[in-house]
Amino acid sequence: MGARHANEQVRRRLTSQGGSGSGDVRGALGGRGAYAQASSCELRSPAMAPAPPPAASFSPAEVQRRLAAGACWVRCGARLYDLTGFVRHHPGGEQLLRARAGQDVSADLDGPPHRHSDNARRWLEQYYVGDLQGDPQDLVDWRKPLLWQVGHLGEKYDEWVHQPVTRPIRLFHSDLIEALSKTVWYSVPIIWVPLMLYLSWSYYRTLAQGNVRLFMSFTTEYSVAMPESMFPGLFMLGLLLWSLVEYLIHRFLFHMKPPNDSYYLIMLHFVMHGQHHKAPFDESRLVFPPVPASLVIAFFYVFLRLILPEAVGGTVFAGGLLGYVIYDMIHYYLHFGSPHKGSYLYHLKAHHVKHHFAHQQSGFGISTKFWDHFFHTLIPEEPHPKIQ
Ligand SMILES: [Zn+2]
Ligand SMILES: [Zn+2]
Ligand SMILES: [Zn+2]
């Protein structure tokens, strides 16, 4: 099993300690509280355990960085264990253990499937590396809507918003507005694909009539005929232009750092993209909602229709619209799908996961890394320890 694939699973679960909201990492365990863990993990009779070295402490971000580099760390409550060297020898199988990297394994130690012996628990203690620092997520009150709180974070907002949690986000007080602010992924193709097909068909027919010419407004003599054979090229141009727009919006709009003292710009940033970085596995606000999307889409439609003859601009627009749908679907898939190792989407996923967890100021391309190459914002490949 590749280290990377495991990492991606890891990251999904990694920040579950953010779930407590109380600042107590143990609280995140749900039914099994601190008591259960004390019995699971702190089984060290005086004879067995030499005085532990002064405990190192690791922030969730530091733990994430190690997991991203391929290490297999687990925790028991706040105690962290580096099992990277041990996974291959785990009697219960490497897969089982690797699938729990980044997680609290206190409950798993008790089984099922297997109740680990006292010796197994002592064995685990050999891999103790330190403690997880208190959870920084309680800068906000997760029981209340976040939208009205983020603006108060000021200079702490940027760091906070880039520390992902696995819990979903509540933005608004009102249940109705909260529900309206969410979008299911398939609404994107359902709404935009029919429009894209309709526009493609009607502009193709217009081009086929044979009287569309480019540069007509400047000169009638050198204008260029635009027969229907130009349709695929114009459509592809639209797809390509979308991938550039996708990159530029993500880099310069979504990742614009709001001023620390601006309550409303922080709020705006949070709604546009911050919430996705805070809760990358909240699927309810991953794709663009249709209403704001239609404003942006209408803007591009008017713009292209103004600078190009109707059917030419319209065809480029239709290609761009398909590009947008593909982008939103790929983005969703990168978060929730498991592409095959070595495939195109697999590499995109690795790239995007790094954008979320470690390199928020690079790796802006979602459906292609082309523009990251072009603008030199590609995330460097980190060499990670080879794990079999
Ligand atoms: Zn085990
Ligand atoms: Zn981003
Ligand atoms: Zn994302």
If you had to describe this structure to a student in words, what would you say it looks like?
The protein is mainly alpha-helical. It folds into 2 domains: 3-138, Flavocytochrome B2, Chain A, domain 1, CATH 3.10.120; 147-374, no CATH class. Helices cover 48% and strands 5% of the residues. It has helices at residues 3-14, 34-41, 60-68, 94-98, 106-110, 118-125, 147-150, 157-161, 175-180, 187-208, 231-254, 263-278, 290-307, 310-336, 344-357, 370-374; strands spanning 57-58, 73-76, 79-82, 128-132, 213-214, 224-225. The strands form 2 sheets. A 4-stranded mixed β-sheet has the order 1-4-3-2. Strands 5-6 form a two-stranded antiparallel sheet. A hairpin with a 2-residue loop joins β2 (73-76) and β3 (79-82). The longest helix is centred in the last third of the chain and has 27 residues, at 310-336. Residues 276, 280, 331, 335, 352, 356 line the site of one zinc ion.
